[in-house]
Amino acid sequence: MSAADRIRAVPAGIWVLGLGSMFMDISSELVHGLLPLYMVGVLGASMVTVGIVEGAAEATAAIVKVFSGALSDYLGKRKFLLVLGYGLAALSKPMFPLATSMSWVFVARFADRIGKGIRGAPRDALIAEITPSEVRGAAYGLRQALDSVGAFVGPLLAVVLMTWLANDIKAVMWVAVVPAFFAVALLAAAVREPERTQGTPSRPPLALSDAGRLPLRYWLVVLLGAVFTLARFSEAFLVLRAQDVGLALALVPTVMIAMNVVYAAIAFPAGAAADLVGPRGLLIGGLVVLVIADVVLAAFASPWAVFAGAALWGIHMGLTQGLLSKLVADTAPEDLIGTGFGVFNLVSGLALLLASVIAGALWSGFGPQATFLAGAVFAALAALGVAVYRPGKPA
To answer: Is 85 helix (H, G, I), strand (E, B) or coil?
Structure first.
C-alpha cells in the first residue's frame, strides 16, 4: 500500500480516538509544560521532589492500567472505561491552578494519572480490535501522531498565553480546562465498539493465572519496554534544562513544542514502516537517536542545544512508542489483549518512577549533565538489548 492507501485503510474509530487524545493532550501539555516551573519557582520544590512527583504519578497510571485492562477483557467492553478515564483527567485540571502547596499538586497529578491509567489499556486494546492486523502499526502510529499534535499545540498555547497574561501561570492553567472537557464529550458521543456475537461465551472471573497464558514473546516485549523507559525519564527534565540554560520563562514551553512537532511528524510513518519491514531496525535507530539527544543535552549549555536535544528526543519517541504498542498487540493473546497492555504499562510505569527518581537525584547531586549522561548509558544498553532480541517469529 502507498502511504495514502494506509491512511484510508485505518478505521474511522482510530481518528476519533486520536482526536480525543489530541484535545486531552492540548490540555495536559498546557499544564505540564508549566508545572515543573510552578513546582520549583513558586512552590519551592527541590529537583528530587519533582522527580518523585513525576515518577509516582506515572507509576500510579501504570498500576491502574493493569486493572482497567484486565477489567475491559472481562467485561468485553472498552468504551465505558475509556470515557471514565478521560473524564477523571478532565476533572483534575481545575485542581492545578487552585493548588497552593506541593501536596495539592501531588493530589492533582495523582487524579490526572489515575484517569490516564483507567483509559490507557482499554483504548490500546480497542485499537487492536477495530484495526486489521496488516495496518496495526499505521493505526497506533496515527493515534500517537494526533496525540503528539496536541502535545505541541498545548505548549504553544502556553507560550502565547504566558506572554499575553504577563507570566501568570495560574491563569494560563485555567485555559486547559476547556479542551479537556471537549475531549470527553467527543469520545462519549463518537466512539463505537465492535459488536459482540450473541454466542460469545462469558469470561470466567479475573484471576492471576491469566498472566500465565501470556507467552514468552510477550514478556520479552515487556522487558524491552522497561529498559526503554529507564533510558527515557520524565520530559519534565527537558523543561527544567531549558530554564537551567537561561531560556526566558515564557519561552520555556517551546522546548516541548520542538519535541512534539518532530514526534507528530515521525510517528505515523514509523508505524506504517513497521507494518512493512518489522520494528527492530526502527527501535534500534530510535535508541541511537536518544543517546545522541542525551549527549547533546549534557554537553552543551545553550538554548539552541536544548532545542536540538528536544527535537532528537522527539525523533526517538516517534520511532519507538507506537511500535512498542504494536509489539504488545501482536504478541498478547486476543482474549487477553487489554490485560497485556495493562501489564506492559505497569512495568514501564514502575521503570519510569525509578528513572525519574534517579534523574532527580543525579541532578541535585551532580548537576543536569549527570542526569542526561545516565540516560545516554541506559539508552545504549537498551539498543544492545534490541539488537540481541530474537522473537520466535516475526512481530
So the answer is: helix
C-alpha distances (whole Å) from 1 to each of 7, 56, 134, 242, 272 are: 10, 42, 10, 41, 10
What is the number of residues in the chain? 395
Would you say 222 and 343 are in contact if contact means Cβ atoms under 8 Å apart?
A: yes
Query: What is the average pLDDT value for the chain, to the nearest integer?
Result: 82
Angle in degrees, CA 364, 370, 376, rounded to 5: 140
CATH 1.20.1250.20 at 3-193+214-388, yes or no: yes
Amino acid, res. 142: L
Q: Which of 1-5, 157-161, 238-242, 281-285 has the lowest mean pLDDT?
A: 1-5
Rounded to whole angstroms, the Cα distance separating 282 from 395 reads 13
What pTM, to 2 d.p., does this model score? Answer: 0.68
Q: Are 253 and 239 in contact (CB under 8 A)?
A: yes
CA distances from 13 to 9, 165, 192, 334 (A): 11, 38, 7, 19
DSSP-derived letter for residue 131 is S
Cell numbers given for 266: 515521525
Contact 268, 186 (CB under 8 A): no
Q: Per-domain residue ranges for the chain?
A: 3-193+214-388
pLDDT of residue 393: 43
Q: Is there a contact between 33 and 161 (Cβ–Cβ < 8 Å)?
A: no
Measuring CA to CA, how many Å separate 53 from each of 73, 232, 357?
Answer: 31, 16, 9
From the list 379, 11, 33, the residue with the least C-alpha distance to 231 is 379
Give the whole-angstrom CA distance, residue 32 versus residue 205: 38
Cα dist from 308 to 235, 291, 302, whole Å:
15, 13, 10
